[in-house]
Structure formats: structure tokens, C-alpha cells
Design a protein that fits this description.
Blueprint (H helix, E strand, L loop, with lengths): L1 E5 L4 H14 L6 E8 L10 H28 L5 E7 L2 H12 L3 E5 L4 H8 L2 H8 L4 E4 L1
Parallel strand pairs: 1-2, 1-4, 2-3, 4-5
Helix pairs in contact: 3-5
Length: 141
């Protein structure tokens, strides 16, 4: 079984990793990809190339640290066949794209639990993933 776990550094994402580890414990051949998607940065006005590059470098460093922490947590939860991947773009679309490329059997992600009213105004990455993919999605609070 192949699982894609979306991680964003939140406690909800840590819970998603723990839930996936419980499932994987019953599946000796489980493969996992931990994915972090950074929003594409939008700049208004002009920035010198040096500023743009330093901002991108900082974003990549943040993603690398976040994925390193998630990998350590995943291994601590018992996940063995696990790798990390980063992407930049609209989070829901990128999660679905990477899941398709990986051939994931399931997408696992935390939900921030804002409820119906909150998602009505704020939108929800989890809600968009469910609508965009044909794959099973496990949402964990």
C-alpha cells in the first residue's frame, strides 16, 4: 500500500502521521511519501533579484526543516519505507498531483477542524483534496 501524507508542521499533521503509522503497522509493504506544499509567493511591485532569491531560499529551508521534522516523527511512529517531497503551488492541487505521480492508494491529512462555517468562508485544503481526487482520503483531527 502506498500512502501520501500531507504535512504542514501542525499538530493535526502529526496526528495524520500517527494514524498512517497505525495503518502501516498492519501492512508490511507500506510505502509513504511525506509531502509539504508551500504556497506560491505573489509579489506586488518590484523586488530586486537578490531579495526574491533570498525569500525563495528561506522558503526552501523552512520546507526542508519541516520535512526533516516530519520524517523524524514518522520514523519514531514506526514508519520505515518513507521519503519526503516538497512542492510549491496551490496546496490541494499539488497534493492530488503528487499522489497521482506516486500512485498513492490513499491520501492522509490532518484537518484543522474549522467546521462547516469556517470552511464556508475560509475554504479548506482537505475539502478541496476530497473533491479533486478519486483516491480515498483519510482525514484526521
Amino acid at each position: 500500500m502506498k500512502m501520501l501524507i500531507a504535512v504542514d508542521g501542525s499538530e493535526h499533521a502529526r496526528h495524520a502521521v500517527q494514524a498512517a503509522a497505525k495503518l502501516a503497522a498492519q501492512l508490511p509493504q507500506a510505502e509513504v511519501v511525506l509531502l509539504n506544499v508551500a504556497d506560491a509567493m505573489v509579489y506586488y511591485g518590484e523586488l530586486p533579484p537578490v531579495d526574491y532569491e533570498s525569500i525563495e531560499r528561506a522558503q526552501r529551508a523552512r520546507q526542508e526543516q519541516l520535512l526533516s521534522d516530519a520524517l523524524e516523527h514518522a520514523r519514531g511512529c514506526g514508519l520505515r519505507s518513507v521519503r519526503t517531497q516538497s512542492a510549491v503551488g496551490q496546496p490541494a492541487a499539488e497534493i492530488v498531483r503528487v499522489a497521482d505521480e506516486f500512485g498513492a492508494d490513499q491520501i492522509v491529512m490532518g484537518t484543522h477542524g474549522k467546521g462547516t462555517l469556517g470552511s464556508l468562508f475560509l475554504g479548506s485544503v482537505a475539502q478541496r483534496v476530497v473533491h479533486l481526487t478519486q483516491r480515498p482520503v483519510l482525514l484526521v483531527k
